[in-house]
Amino acid sequence: MQRKSPWLDSIVLVFLIVTAVAMMVPYLWMVVSSFKSNMDIMSGQGSFFPTHPTLEGYFTVFEDAPFVKWMWNSAISAVIITIITLFTSALAGYVFAKHQFKGKRILFVLILATMMIPFQVIMIPTYLITARLGLIDHLAAIILPNLVSSYGVFLAKQFIEDIPQDLLDAARIDGAGELRLMIRIIAPLILPMLSALGIFTFMNAWNNYLWPLIVLNDTDHMTVPLALVYFNGTHVVNYNVVMSAAVLITLPVMIVFLIFQKQFIKGLTMTGMK
Amino acid sequence: MNKSIEAGNTSKRTFDKGTTRSYQNEKWFVRIALAPILLLFGVFAFLPIAWSLLLSFYDYSPLSNHAVFTGMKNYTLLLQDAVFLKSLWVTFKFVGITVISNIVITLIIASAIYAIRIQWLKNLFRTLFFLPAIAPLAGTAIVWTTILNYDSGLFNVILGQLHIAPVHWLSDPKYALLSVIMMTLWADIGYNIVLFIAGRESIADMYYEAAILDGANRWHLFFFVTLPLLRRTMLFVTITTVISYFQAFPQFQIMTKGEPFNETRVLALNIYDQAFSNSNMGYASAMATIFLIIILIVTLIQFRLGRASWEQ
């Protein structure tokens, strides 16, 4: 092992504390600004902490816009996307890992290849397709294109391949159908991978900005990342309102992350190492 | 046939009847399971790629509903379009600076976190550096816009206390791109820190023990043991970071809108504006095609370089 050096250890610790505190400053700024009053901001004294802490910004967020509706839109679409993506990924992963059929390799390579395509390359035709399906300004426009994930299929295939064939054959001899096999035997065995994929999918769906920006124009149908921009446009001066909205939008993902942190970190390293 | 090879060891002759029936079941299962999934991939991934290529040869606006075939016209126009050429340059500048700084910074922080001996402290630091990465980028961009505000932003308040003249962070051509780079790094370093820590953890102690016996000091260990053995992680981290920075969008659209003087008009923003603000979808598709080619070439080069360094 490396030789111990208390001096170096303390330098490293101090370095990390200083940088970590610096990393937290924008969050502190966000929270502190959300409690400022209009007076504080207009006076332009530029004091970091609010002189008269108030919930004014938060009230305005709920009064001026259908904010609860937006939260609901985001939550419902993110949950549906996550559940279905997990299902389709596991299913496709199972088929690609444990079944033989014509064109299997080509199909799998094609699906993998879509991982490298930047969204900006396909967004115009995807918009045109969505428009033709009559889905503009519907939550379905957010949900439908996001129900499959090439990354999810890839991960699931990798993990299902490691499941011994004997186990599946034994269950088949006992008369289990393919779908039952997948839900009862495979899903529990790949649960760690599924939970990691689930958190990733949920956060990406919750945080997605570009696609909702393209397909959601009607104020009533927006998701929360668009809400921020809405407030930023209407309350340029009162950024206590904008910051309050930012706090409300960031909080749910933070909570989800802190709860599932372990699975998240594991999932992240899984992709890098496999 | 394939089935019998796959299950060959376990299913005995006596189960022949059963296996044929379940083979039939399996065939149907594959068809029914894959059909909806492939339909979704087809409609929202394969078809758009082909359509986008096709669209780049047309003059198409969703408002007129008439697509006029123009051949290579969009591409020849692109080569004369000063804004497009500038956006290419800005994109490469942004990706280059941000990726290199990202990797240097994350490597330093990850090594520092790895060196901490107390487990909970290690986890705490990892979490703190990761938190910005999970916040919605749109929110982060707006928070940073207020931090960089000329009149009341945190940065200028601090400069004021140090008696330094305030800076137009987002509207001065000298600082605009730099400001977005700072914000992007803040929002994004968590991912690579986690990956580097995991990569470092997977290096066996014996390499270090052997090097120490040979008289290596800390710097030797880092440059001649850690770095070479981190190559796999490094390759993965570089490729994913490069691809994601090429696509960086919310921070540019929200913080600078491509201004001042197109100093921050990256390709991703340019494509969006042409397609959805100017309804110039054929032209935007031609840009998208060039964007795709760039990403493919850059990725191929990285794979080549990565492979070459493994084989040494």
Strand and helix layout:
The complex is a heterodimer of chains A (274) and B (312).
Chain A (H helix, E strand, L loop, with lengths): L5 H29 L3 H6 L12 H9 L2 H32 L5 H10 L5 H14 L6 H5 L6 H12 L3 H9 L4 H12 L1 H17 L2 H6 L8 H11 L4 H21 L1 H13 L1
Helix pairs in contact in A: 1-14, 3-14, 4-8, 4-11, 5-8, 11-15, 13-14
Chain B lengths: L1 H6 L8 H40 L2 E2 L8 E2 L3 H8 L1 H34 L3 H16 L2 H11 L6 H8 L14 H26 L3 H9 L4 H12 L1 H16 L3 H6 L11 H11 L3 H31 L1
Antiparallel strand pairs in B: 1-2
Keywords (chain A): Cell membrane, Membrane, Transmembrane, Transmembrane helix, Transport
Subcellular location (chain A): Cell membrane
Membrane topology (chain A): Multi-pass membrane protein
Overview of the molecule:
The complex is a heterodimer of chains A (274) and B (312). Chain A has helices at 6-34, 38-43, 56-64, 67-98, 104-113, 119-132, 139-143, 150-161, 165-173, 178-189, 191-207, 210-215, 224-234, 239-259, 261-273. By secondary structure, chain A is mainly alpha-helical. Chain B has 312 residues and is mainly alpha-helical. Chain B has 14 helices and two strands, in the order ααββαααααααααααα. Chain B has helices at residues 2-7, 16-55, 73-80, 82-115, 119-134, 137-147, 154-161, 176-201, 205-213, 218-229, 231-246, 250-255, 267-277, 281-311, and strands at 58-59, 68-69. A two-stranded antiparallel sheet of chain B has the order 1-2. In chain B, helix 5 (119-134) packs antiparallel against helix 8 (176-201) and helix 8 runs antiparallel to helix 11. Chain B starts with a helix and ends with a helix. Residues 1-17 of chain B have low confidence and may be disordered. Chains A and B meet through helix 1, helix 4, helix 5, helix 6 and helix 9 of A and helix 1, helix 2, helix 4, helix 5 and helix 6 of B. Chain B: Belongs to the binding-protein-dependent transport system permease family. Chain B: This is Sugar ABC transporter permease. Chain B: Residues 88-302 form the ABC transmembrane type-1 domain. Chain B: It is found in: Cell membrane. Chain B: Its main location: membrane.
